[in-house]
């Protein structure tokens, strides 16, 4: 069942954006600051109504889906999430089960293990570092076992080892049939790990393709205004830029 944006316009933020995503892969949304990435992700999560156009899950309009039903199918991780309660890490992860009305042990344990949080389970959530907190909040999303995982910059606060662990976990979710959509600023991570990349520029789709084409040196020069080139083996490439440009 596809997740789609159909001619979505949010005035001042997105202009006539269309895309159709299928489960079973990782899609990265990239673009400069203010390009509309978070706005598109929120619309695809059903959290924002468009001025014109619509976001659809299969044949249903996302904004008309019942909240609980939508939360069961789409797990959304915002860019910066504050924790309001002084409770344990495990209790926060268990909140991911709310749409199901249970606190089933197995998915909570799996999510905690996937994010390498076993040692923190009993800790008060408010005492975690930024990266640990980011892992906990993603574990909460995973505990809900949604069909779609939509995450806004989930790797930003993570060290390289946890970035790679998390990407491997998202890959397993995608291989298992989930749809994974992540906003990424790190173009090398997008190029090396996504199956597809949507590049936004000033609220419009500048590219929507396999990473090699969507993040070509030409697209990067046009959209980011940076002269950069890819080096290294396919799947393990780095982007180098000339600082004098
Ligand atoms: N609630 C809002 N009301 C009005 N304008 C907004 C609102 N949220 C974001 N914008 C504007 O919409 C545009 C797109 O914002 P958005 O957060 O989607 O960009 P982004 O690509 O995710 O940026 P970044 O990389 O900086 O996180 C920006 O110009 C932003 O200032």
Automatic annotation (TrEMBL):
One Pfam family in the UniProt entry: ABC_tran
Source species, domain of life: Bacteria
Gene Ontology MF, one: ATP binding
SUPFAM superfamilies tied to this protein: P-loop containing nucleoside triphosphate hydrolases (SSF52540)
Domain ABC transporter: 3-227
InterPro entries listed in its UniProt record: AAA+_ATPase (IPR003593), ABC_transporter-like_ATP-bd (IPR003439), ABC_transporter-like_CS (IPR017871), P-loop_NTPase (IPR027417)
Keyword terms: ATP-binding, Nucleotide-binding, Translocase, Transport
Classification via PROSITE patterns: ABC_TRANSPORTER_1, ABC_TRANSPORTER_2
Function: Part of the ABC transporter complex HmuTUV involved in hemin import. Responsible for energy coupling to the transport system.
Record's protein name: ABC transporter ATP-binding protein
């Amino acid at each position: 069942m596809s997740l789609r944006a159909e001619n979505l316009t949010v005035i001042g933020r997105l202009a006539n954006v269309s895309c159709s995503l299928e489960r079973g892969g990782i899609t990265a949304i990239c673009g400069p600051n203010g390009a509309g990435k978070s706005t598109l992700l929120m619309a695809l999560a059903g959290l924002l109504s468009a001025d014109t156009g619509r976001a659809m899950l299969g044949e249903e309009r996302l904004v008309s889906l019942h909240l609980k039903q939508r939360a069961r199918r789409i797990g959304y991780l915002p860019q910066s999430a504050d924790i309001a309660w002084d409770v344990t890490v495990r209790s926060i992860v268990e909140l991911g089960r709310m749409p199901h009305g249970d606190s089933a042990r197995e998915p909570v344990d799996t999510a905690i293990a996937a994010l390498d949080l076993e040692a923190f389970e009993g800790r008060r959530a408010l005492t975690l570092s930024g990266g640990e907190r980011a892992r906990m909040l993603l574990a909460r999303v995973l505990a809900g076992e949604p069909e779609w995982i939509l995450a806004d910059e989930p790797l930003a606060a993570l060290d390289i080892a946890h970035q790679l662990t998390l990407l491997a976990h998202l890959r397993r979710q995608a291989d298992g049939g989930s749809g994974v959509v992540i906003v990424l600023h790190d173009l090398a991570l997008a190029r090396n790990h996504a199956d597809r990349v949507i590049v936004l520029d000033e609220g419009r789709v500048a590219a929507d393709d396999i990473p090699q084409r969507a993040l070509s040196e030409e697209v990067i020069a046009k959209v980011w205004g940076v002269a950069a080139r890819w080096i290294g083996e396919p799947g393990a490439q780095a982007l180098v830029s000339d600082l004098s440009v």
